[in-house]
Write a structure and sequence with these properties.
With about 140 residues, the chain is mainly α. The chain has one domain (about 1-144). Helices cover about 85% and strands about 0% of the residues. It is built from five helices and no strands. Helix 1 (about 1-25) runs antiparallel to helix 5 (about 110-144), helix 2 (about 30-40) crosses helix 4 (about 70-105) and helix 3 packs antiparallel against helix 4 (about 70-105). It is elongated. The two termini are about 15 Å apart.
Length: about 140
């Protein structure tokens, strides 16, 4: 449960701090800032390891304790939240970051407001999924 709080917190920070601030910058600063902060090999790994740990532990708890009662249902919802955040990251967040990097490396003009809108919508989905996972696993722990 505690491990799921790390990516949830990171997702909320990106949603409430990074995305709105970057969207207010003028080009090329907005695009450069986005790329510098979010296009490197390790930024998603910060959330991956704790998410995997939380999901594995939650699934192990289901195997050991079963799916009965509030704890079992909350654990399933928690794992679904973690998986939802992972899918949104893979399907929506990473492609936006790659498109921004492509535009920078090709040195072409970008429409950062469009990217910023897509990125913010993606972050809302990621944060909602991650927070759902964290709170559901917290409830599961409290219900045991």
């Amino acid at each position: 449960m505690f491990a799921s709080g790390i990516p949830a917190g990171l997702q909320i920070a990106v949603l409430t701090v990074f995305a709105p601030r970057t969207a207010t910058l003028e080009e090329p600063h907005s695009v450069r800032t986005h790329d510098l902060l979010l296009h490197h090999s390790h930024h998603n790994l910060i959330g991956v390891a704790p998410s995997v740990l939380a999901a594995v532990c939650a699934i192990a708890a289901l195997v050991v304790d079963g799916v009965e009662g509030l704890a079992g249902v909350a654990t399933i919802v928690g794992v679904a939240g973690l998986l939802g955040a992972a899918v949104v990251t893979r399907v929506r967040a990473i492609p936006v970051n790659i498109r921004i990097r492509k535009r920078l490396t090709l040195d072409t003009e970008t429409d950062y407001p469009e990217f910023a809108t897509q990125f913010a919508a993606t972050q809302r989905l990621r944060a909602a999924s991650g927070v759902l996972g964290f709170f559901a696993l917290t409830l599961a722990l409290a219900a045991t």
